[in-house]
Design brief:
The protein is an alpha+beta fold. It has nine helices and twelve strands. It has a three-stranded antiparallel sheet. Strands 6-7-10 form a three-stranded antiparallel sheet, with helices on one face. It has a two-stranded parallel sheet with strand order 1-2. The protein folds into two domains: about 5-100, Creatine Amidinohydrolase, Chain A, domain 1 (3-Layer(aba) Sandwich), CATH 3.40.350; about 105-315, Creatinase/methionine aminopeptidase superfamily (Creatine Amidinohydrolase, Alpha-Beta Complex), CATH 3.90.230.10. It is about 35% helix and about 15% strand.
Length: about 325
């Protein structure tokens, strides 16, 4: 909760270490029990006062902004929003999210170190999978996901998975956010694309990475589809663009190759990624938010249709 003269963080005391508590006090941030939020809202403990955003909105909206008492971010819980709608309010993107999305050098260095550790686990996993196939073993989608998690487990500062491992073979690669179940997982088909989209969540950063492999001999269609996705990935990765460019404008670069070949492609070419959140916003490669130094995004092109291919890195 942010007012004109104070900041209150509602948090589980078990998550509040002495070092973090001292740091928050140094920033004049008050801390309260997580569940105290509801009594705080009911009692309207923040008192009277107005909130103005004189530097963030055009003149036509200044008067409305000046009269506001409460700003509700679109991501706020519905239960919280209901408790605030008796006030003069508006729903608008939080400037706090915009500020948080711009990473400083310490945060960027932390994310880079986290990616080094996570990528090493990813490489060891694919080496293990290739070795098992070369020895004639059959591996299910579920076992592959489990083994990858085991490769990540010893990593320094690991908090857990950034999201459930997407380990998909054949037709399952067409299912959004498919996560294999032990009892229903398919065997990984060596003659079809195998997609693995996963990442670790660490104290110093969140990782998201995706690769598509074929362990048999790829067909001409496989090679063409993969090349199209790789061309899109390189187009975003190597783009040099002027100040004021949005991710949506960069997305045109990714579409050029497939469009020339008469192929449709997944318009969600990537997403924002946070310091401790997989999706933090508001920027991405698919919306009109202006990209600025300090923004971190994933470059994740993919193809629609019967040969879905995905390649994901972080920038």
């Amino acid at each position: 909760m942010i007012t004109l003269d104070k900041v209150i963080l509602f948090i589980d005391p078990a998550q509040l270490t002495d070092d973090v508590g001292d740091y928050l006090k140094a920033l004049s941030v008050d801390t309260r029990e997580y569940n105290d939020l509801w009594s705080y809202l009911r009692k309207r403990e923040w008192g009277e006062g107005r909130v103005s955003f004189l530097l963030h909105f055009p003149i036509s909206r200044l008067l409305n902004a000046w009269l506001l008492k409460v700003i509700i971010a679109p991501e706020s819980l519905y239960a919280i929003a209901l408790m605030l709608t008796s006030f003069r309010y508006t729903v608008m993107p939080s400037f706090v999210n915009s500020m948080k999305a711009i990473k400083n050098n310490t945060e960027i260095d932390g994310m880079r170190r986290a990616y080094f550790r996570d990528s090493a686990s990813f490489i060891r996993f694919f080496a293990w999978l290739e070795h098992k196939f070369s020895e004639g073993y059959d591996i299910t989608e579920y076992e592959a996901a489990f083994r990858l998690t085991e490769f990540r487990r010893p990593n320094k500062h690991l908090l857990g998975l950034a999201h459930e491992v997407i380990s998909a073979s054949g037709p399952h690669t067409t299912l959004p956010h498919y996560s294999p179940n032990k009892s229903t997982a398919a065997m990984i088909d060596r003659e079809a694309p195998y997609l693995n989209d996963s990442g670790g969540c660490y104290d110093d950063g969140v990782c998201s990475i995706a690769r598509t492999w074929i362990y048999g001999r790829p067909t001409a269609d496989h090679c063409k589809a993969y090349t199209q996705v790789l061309r899109r990935h390189i187009a975003i990765d190597s783009a040099i663009f002027p100040e004021g460019t949005s991710g949506h404008q960069l997305d045109v670069l990714a579409g050029k190759g497939p469009w020339q070949d008469g192929v449709d492609y997944d318009p969600e070419n990537g997403h924002d990624i946070g310091f401790l959140n997989m999706h933090e916003g508001p920027h991405s490669v698919s919306n009109n938010t202006t990209l600025v130094p300090g923004h971190v995004i994933t470059n994740e092109p993919g193809l629609c249709g019967s040969l879905p291919i995905h390649i994901e890195d972080c920038h």
